[in-house]
């Protein structure tokens, strides 16, 4: 029999350190739903999602029950809707079809109300992007993403400009829910095709008909492991994180394989992300503080996060046959008790977060800003993030929420996994003329790799 | 299918009797038992059980073990063996 110490260690990780599978996400291709008519196409979308995902939640719950490991979310991602709906118009109908199907399947979120405009947008894509605020305000669990930059294409600054406005409109149309629409909208650079995490999940064009991707989590487990390494050199810190990430990922691999087998759907990837939740003890910021920082945001935070992000990948990569998604450490402010505290006390600023996104797995995530933040400021923050992603050949993103009617010092509470955030201040010097230029920022020299 | 029954709680007489009786009633076969008293008289027991001839469903056995544990104030978990093997064995 396996060693009793290992059994008790696993139970402790689950019961007291919030170890969980964050999500089982089923990716579904919608290419076979294409039609020139919005009603026909949206009808096919609904039918395909409900046919493919009918057993997803039940299977997730059965695995949870038998293996004793919590699976926090069951989700669906679909082919970017802008690709299958071009020429149909009435894009919001697709969001409604997705929402209805997802509710019926009992999943937590559905992603893929998405567009790819890193070089330029077609007329249909521009209309699709215009529909995002309405789509997010009229649906409950549909998530949207727009890719505005890649290392190969550069940054589409026309799209960046428009997305600043779209974020504002999305927040304004959902003012009664604290601007929740903007919390379901991600703007990417170098978006990945197999990300199981929301709000940026979509089923990429290179994917098959249906796939199971799993996102692991477990910042609390890493923090607990580091508690026994106080004062020890970073070599020891990195080794401890790697070992812990290995254990966590092995569990993710088992769940992914089991879900794939039971559903009869191919296994795609395990995303090795440390995804925090607002629960105490489930925080990435606390890991950084455990490394010796008084508060997350102190000088040294970027270095600490760089070590964490790298060690998580190194530890996890041997534990699964296919790594993918975003893999690394997330730093969503409203979803992390330590980040919330650091932002409240002023230790963690937008500028420091931007620096952290150079070395974390994604970008500026779940950041609440004053409701009157101008669209061009949102666009400029987005441009900075896209530049970091483009130049460093990594995924970056922004999920900014200009919370209607709120000012610095106020709070917004989205509830659940999305958490609660203090409204953060931004730099008030205007980037208006910079954003008004439009056009493209060319791809960097190192994009020319062939 | 094999699973691990883990028991955690204050040490007291009858823990093994209660848990093994619940397993016997479900026709689950105990393959191995390890027990220790951890700090402050916290009792920890892990059992490897074979559920191939089990008369009830996995979920029912889980409930019955939980109920048997609750009677004597201890925490009982039933989890498939693979989770531990996959996490701790390469």
UniProtKB/TrEMBL annotation, chain A:
Gene3D superfamilies xref list: 3.20.70.20
Source taxon at top rank: Bacteria
Matching InterPro entries: UPF0210
Family assignment from sequence similarity: Belongs to the UPF0210 family.
Assembly notes: Homodimer.
Name by which UniProt lists this protein: UPF0210 protein H8S18_08120
Organism, as annotated: Christensenella tenuis
UniProtKB/TrEMBL annotation, chain B:
Entries under InterPro entries matching the protein: ACT-like_dom_sf, ACT_dom, UPF0237/GcvR_regulator, UPF0237_ACT
Gene3D superfamilies in alphabetical order: 3.30.70.260
Lineage: Bacteria, Bacillati, Bacillota, Clostridia, Christensenellales
Residues covered by the ACT domain: 4-79
The name this protein goes by in its record: ACT domain-containing protein
Pfam (any one): ACT_6
């Amino acid at each position: 029999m396996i060693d009793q110490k290992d059994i008790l260690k696993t139970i402790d990780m689950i019961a007291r350190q919030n170890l969980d599978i964050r999500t089982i996400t089923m990716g579904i291709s919608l290419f076979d739903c294409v039609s020139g008519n919005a009603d026909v196409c949206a009808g096919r979308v609904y039918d395909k999602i409900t046919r493919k995902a009918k057993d997803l939640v039940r299977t997730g719950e059965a695995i949870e029950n038998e293996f004793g490991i919590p699976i926090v979310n069951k989700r669906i991602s679909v082919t970017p809707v802008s690709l299958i709906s071009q020429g149909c118009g009435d894009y919001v109908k697709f969001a409604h079809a997705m929402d209805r199907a997802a509710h019926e399947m009992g999943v937590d979120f559905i992603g893929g109300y998405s567009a790819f405009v890193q070089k330029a947008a077609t007329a249909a894509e521009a209309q699709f992007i215009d529909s995002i605020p309405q789509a997010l305000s009229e649906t409950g669990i549909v998530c949207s993403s727009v890719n505005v930059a890649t290392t190969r294409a550069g940054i589409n600054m026309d799209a960046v400009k428009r997305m600043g406005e779209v974020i504002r409109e999305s927040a304004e149309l959902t003012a009664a829910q604290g601007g929740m629409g903007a919390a379901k909208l991600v703007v990417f650079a170098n978006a990945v095709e197999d990300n199981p995490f929301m709000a940026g999940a979509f089923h990429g064009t290179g994917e098959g008909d249906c796939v199971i991707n799993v996102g692991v989590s477990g910042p609390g487990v890493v923090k607990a492991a580091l508690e026994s390494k106080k004062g020890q050199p970073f070599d020891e810190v990195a080794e401890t994180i790697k070992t812990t990430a290995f254990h966590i990922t092995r569990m993710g691999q088992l769940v992914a394989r089991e879900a794939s087998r039971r559903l009869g759907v191919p296994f795609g990837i395990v995303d090795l992300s440390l995804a925090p939740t607002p629960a105490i003890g489930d925080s990435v910021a606390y890991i950084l503080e455990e490394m010796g920082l008084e508060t997350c945001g102190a000088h040294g935070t970027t270095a600490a996060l760089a070590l964490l992000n790298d060690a998580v990948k190194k530890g996890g990569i041997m534990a699964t046959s296919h790594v993918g998604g975003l893999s690394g450490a997330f730093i969503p402010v409203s979803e992390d008790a330590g980040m919330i505290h650091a932002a409240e006390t002023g230790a963690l600023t937008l500028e420091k977060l931007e620096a952290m996104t150079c070395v974390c797995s994604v970008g500026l995530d779940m950041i609440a800003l004053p409701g009157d933040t101008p669209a061009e400021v949102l666009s400029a923050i987005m441009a900075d993030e896209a530049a970091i992603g483009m130049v460093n050949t990594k995924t970056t993103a922004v999920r900014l929420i200009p919370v209607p009617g709120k000012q610095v010092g106020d709070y917004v509470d989205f509830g659940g996994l999305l958490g609660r955030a203090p409204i953060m201040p931004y730099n008030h010097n205007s980037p208006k003329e910079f954003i008004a230029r439009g056009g493209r920022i060319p791809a960097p020299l190192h994009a020319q790799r062939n | 299918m094999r699973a691990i029954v883990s028991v955690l709680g204050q040490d007291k007489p009858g823990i093994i009797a209660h848990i093994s009786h619940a397993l016997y009633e479900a026709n689950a076969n105990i393959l191995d038992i390890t027990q220790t008293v951890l700090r402050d008289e916290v009792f920890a027991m892990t059992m490897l059980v074979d559920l191939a001839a089990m008369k009830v469903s996995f979920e029912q056995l889980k409930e019955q073990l939980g109920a048997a544990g609750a009677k004597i104030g201890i925490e009982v978990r039933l989890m498939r063996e693979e989770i531990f093997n996959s996490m701790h064995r390469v």
